[in-house]
Structure formats: C-alpha cells, structure tokens
Amino acid sequence: MCRPPGPRLSLRELHPVRLGAVRVTAEGAPRQLSLLPEQARPALRILDQRERGTRFIRLSVRSVLNSPATTGMGFWSVNPYVGCEFGCTYCYARDTHRYTIERMGERRPGPAWLDFERRILVKTEVAEVLAKTLDPSRLGDASLVIGTATDPYQPVERRFRLTRAVLELLLQYRGLSIGLITKSPLVTRDIAVLQALSARHEVSVNISLATMDARLARRLELRSPVPSARIRALRRLIEGGVHAGLLVAPIVPGITDDRAGLSRLMGAAKEAGARYVVGSALRLGPAARHRFLPVLAEEFPELAERYRQHYGRSESASPAYQVALKRRLHRLQQAHGFPADEGMRRRQQLEGRRPRGASAEGQESLL
Q: Considering the domain 46-351 in this protein, what is its CATH number?
C-alpha cells in the first residue's frame, strides 16, 4: 500500500524520544510503556572456531533426554551436539538445529541449511544433566540411542569428549538397551568403554554408510569420512567384541538404491564381520530440502523434477517405494547371510515407525 504524499520528516523527527517511562513518537502519540528496564540478551559463548568459519557455541540445557512422545520415534535419544561439521547434504537434522536457534532467539547470519554446518551448538554439561534426569524405569523396553540428530563423533568430539562422558556415565547403570549411530572412525577411540558397557547393557553400534563409492559419497556428504575408513572402524569394533552393524541410511532414491550398490555394501559389511545390516529411505524436512534439492539439481539433474514433485508433498518416500525397498533389502540380507528379522527389529527401533501401504512387485519409482 502506497504512503500518502506529505512533508518529509528529518531523521531527528523520525527518531523516538524517551520521556520518563513512556516512549513518544515525533507526532506525540504514546507507543509503549516500559515496565521493566531493557536488558540485552546475553552473548553466546564461543568455545572454538575453525578456519573455514565454523563456530562452536556453548548451549546451556536443563534436559538432554528426548522422549518418544517428544520426537515421535520409538526410542529415547541423547545428542551432545546440535549441528554437524560433516555437512551431509541430505541431513534431516537441519530442522532440529533451526528450531533450536529460533528458540534461543538468535538471528541467523545466513540460510538455515548453512547455519547447521557453521554454528555447532555444544551441550558442554550433557553428562551432568543426564545424570540428574535419567530414570531407567521411565525408559521401559525402549532403547536409548545416542546420535540420532547429529553425529556424536564428529571431529569436535576429539576436543570436548562429550559422547565419551555420556558413555562413562551409563556405566553406572545396568540393563539398558543402548544404541549409537555414527559415520566416524573416532568411535573406535572408545572401544574399551563400549566393551565395559556391553557387560552391563545391550549395546549396538551402528556405522552409517550410504555407498561404497567414494566419489559418490563425496557428492552427497561434503566432509564425512570415506567409506573404507568406516568399514575399517566396523571391523575394529567387531574384533573388539562390540556388537556392531551397518546402517545404510539414508538410501537415496535413484542414486544409492540400486541392487548392485547395496549388494556391494552388504558384502563389505559381511567381510568386516558386521552382525547385521539395516537401511531406510531418505526423508527431507523443510530445512534439509532447501539444502539437498539444489545439490540434486546440480549433481543429478535428471532426478530434480521428480524429487521436487514428490518431496514437495511429503518428507518421506512414498509408501510404495518403501515397501519395494524393504523387499530388496530383505533379499540382499538373505543373500549375504544377514538375519533379516534381526535387521528389521533394529531398524524399527531406530526409526520408530513402519512404512505403510503396499505396491506392486518391483515398483521402486518416486512417482
């Protein structure tokens, strides 16, 4: 709506003047009554910074344990970090980071998808807070999973050792079902702790890997460890007596879901001694979509329009696609000697849901 013509005001006239407790505009109309003195928001404490611009910011929290009712998943979870240095283009946790930043009342210097990689929130007191709030009786039969939103062994863990502190805290308890998800070989640093935990709890370490093709992995995951390093980490865990397997996630429709690629993954996992292999299809929340779809248009233009049409309506792959993918994974599990039932049980624990609907045999299209 256009502003009606009239005499222009000077900068002095436009600036509000404070008279006592009342703010008055140049026209003389009261605007706001200030009941309390204005206080500046406390500055965020920057703990560290990378040359490429990534900052690590202390996040003060009163609770770190996420319940199934809060997340909509079938397990409890703990995430020592919010945001991730690996910067995987498809990562759904960009939305979690965006919500946290908004709750903090902070302004983003750039788009949310980039903020996720450049401002990592560090829960420096995660173990202490968990010690005060963890009640094993509340967990029931549900698992406690570490690293569901961002990688608990991303590079900054070398300095802050927060994931290590959480694992050491859990040594004080018995009888829990504990899961851990990571892309990083850094997890092998804590083999001794994981061995001790395994004597007290049911422990599973899930090494996340979407493809054995290093070049393809780099197109999707900007700074994550190479596939061969993750397979070596899986082998070291198994040789150390830790129950571990491969989490093929996400399976990216039309890119990493081919039978030959998935079979190569399972073959590498079998050779490393993996106890199981499970997988789940890509899902794209709003913030993740803004990051992944432009990459898709540049790297895989032939798929861009189909993705825009499908994921514009839903965060998840279609029920038909998920059923077909489940069938493919089941057959490959059988071919490589992995327990299909065990794999499905663990996938349901990690996802907290099952794909709905049915499809014709072999249907694996996004459309």
A: 3.20.20.70
